[in-house]
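Hi support team,

I submitted a single chain yesterday and got back a structure, but I'm not sure I'm reading the token output correctly. Could someone confirm the output below corresponds to the sequence I sent? I've pasted both exactly as they appear in my results page.

Thanks,
R.
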Amino acid sequence: MKKFLSFFLIMTFLTGLTACGGQEEMPDVPEEGEYVYVPEFISLDRPENVNSSDSRLQGERLYQNNYLYDLDTMRGTDQFRVLSLGGEVLFEITMGGNGSEGQYFQEHLVDYDVDAEGNVYTLENGVEQGGKTDYYLCCYNDSGARASVLDVTAALKVDENSASASQLLLDDEGRIYVMCQRSVKLFEQDGSPAGSVSMAQNGYPHALARGKSGDIYVFYQDSSDLSRRGAKIDFEAKELGDAFGNLPGQARTGDICRGEKGDFFINDGSKVYEYDIESQSYEEVLTWLDCDVVGSDVSRIERTEEGALFAIVENWRAQTEEAVFLNRRSASEVEPKTEIVLGLLYEDREIQTAVVDFNKRSDQYKVVIRTYVDSNAGESYTDGVRKLNLDIVSGNSPDIFDLSRLDIETLTLNGAVEDITPYLESSSVLDKADYLENVLTSYTYGGKLAAIPHSFEIETVAGKTSDLGEEMGWTLEEMLSFAKEHPQSQLIYNATKGSVMEFCMNSNMELFMDWESGETKFDSELFVRLLEFVNTYPDVLKPQENPLEREELLRSGMVLLYPVSIMYFHEIQWYPFAFDETVTYIGYPTADGSAAAVLDYSFDELYGISAASQNKEGAWTFIESCLNLPVESGFSPRMSQLELQIEEAKDYRKDESGEPKLDENGNLIPAHGSIGLGYGEYYYAYHISTDEEINWVMELLSIAKPQKSSDNQVMAIIEEEAQAFYAGQRTAEDVAEVIQGRVQTYMDERR
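Hi R., thanks for writing in. Yes, this is the structure output for that exact sequence:
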């Protein structure tokens, strides 16, 4: 087992960690406004197959309550471990299992806390067959021997039939507090019941925490106005003190710890604040991203006697766990990095993780995120796009911006986006020749490569080969003729007027608008036919009294085409099953009839460099690091990575000796598991991908291109004016004339 805490760290940071001890005098620290928090990261040892973990550090010991889930047995197990700072497992308690002769009994560790002497107090339950749950209050000494066990089921009863509990906490005197559904149960240090504090008149408790004074407080949602409040628990009087409010964030379990100047530090998942009960006010202490931490991954915060904040950071996606010490340092002592501004409409955990990982590795650059949609201020997606576009063209551009929701072509041709070809060609990490040619070509405008997606999925349209033939690709006119030849069938599954118009126009706007010549053709016979076709679909989808399964509709020919969305190689298997025969991936209609599969970069990782950036090398370094991350969802645009994905698609599950595992029918179980789609007679179980199936996907990958975004203003004009035809108030020809006039005026003004 690796050692995960250094001697220096032990001496500097851990000696005085006060999870349970009293308040000590603080050493001198820089005055407020003169310091920054500098993070120190330590990787924690984590067992395999951990689904979730609750880790705490006190003194010279790490405590872990791990929930392990075995995919083979589909069983969960609680594993409580105590480790030394050197990584040695001092003792371990495993819970969960079946009784003899089929009698089911599962143990579970609900919560735990540790006193100043290292004794571990646990709240455990046992679930018997039939659902009966008993609760036990246990104490283990510092060597792991169980010193006491008390059945506290009766004390934790919610009603006559059930008991409930979710959190256990000790005060500085060793007394025990257990949070239940609508109350906090109290126990003396020896475990004997000491009464209860009812929350029935207050609301629903969601966290217990120690304050600066060492007293225990309960935080709850007030049932009268749904506000978040807190109150001190008076153990002797068995009642709550005066309530206080104006709390930041949700204040979950683990998000609150003793304060330094105020009563509490509170983590809201993005920032940490210090809260003062007397004034019912708080001040921002730090922003997690500034400290290279993804705030939503923080599972617990504490404060050390040295003035550092301590946090456990659990990245469940990467199955890693870290301890981070946030030490106050004078700002003048910290070597500054060159800031790279990343402009996004929205930020999420995945983007934050990429930024944090980069910042922790880079000694030269620090990426900071600038978001353009403030949902709290009522801003919309459209507001964000407008603000980002304005910044890009007005000299306030971020160094990097997410192009996935912008007009990439226009921005690039107008000189706002840097050509990344030279950076890619000189990269020691990425190889231009490794990329699918159609992907690089698709994002090249006027000879400039604007961006490269990290991963993508494929969207296209499938139908029976017996109806469509074997060739992919068709024109809008050919599609309309095909629909006319099958008057008793619906062309597209589960579609509405709006979705069908979008389906037909996305790759065909150029048939009706020529920006170079300034000519529009919405009064053409083809557009009139399109309006008449769209009118055969409903305005909105309505529930049917006796709906047929989609497979029944597709196999019977009542519906001719089905939208295809593929993120993994095995997903293409379902479509021949759905139609019950060979399918042709005909694709969306295009102006020239070429085969069209849409390259959908819906993962919001399409980063471009601002041509106005003063830090282009740093911007590329970040983009390069993002492009080199493993692909977890969708397909990689790099052949070297696609080959690995193909190997995974052909892989199968093995037992401990390396022998293949078989399902109940004697078939190999795919490495991705025995998963499927549908139910009943229409359930399809995915199998290990065949070479033929992989070739189908690879052919679609080789022709996939980004979907041309329809001009939103033109689509709005079409939708608005078409309503008169749909309602029977005007003919299709009359409506086409009106659309022609309005779009021509719009084009003239734009040109």
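A quick pointer for reading it: The two ends are 68 Å apart (CA to CA). Let us know if anything else looks off.

Best,
Support desk
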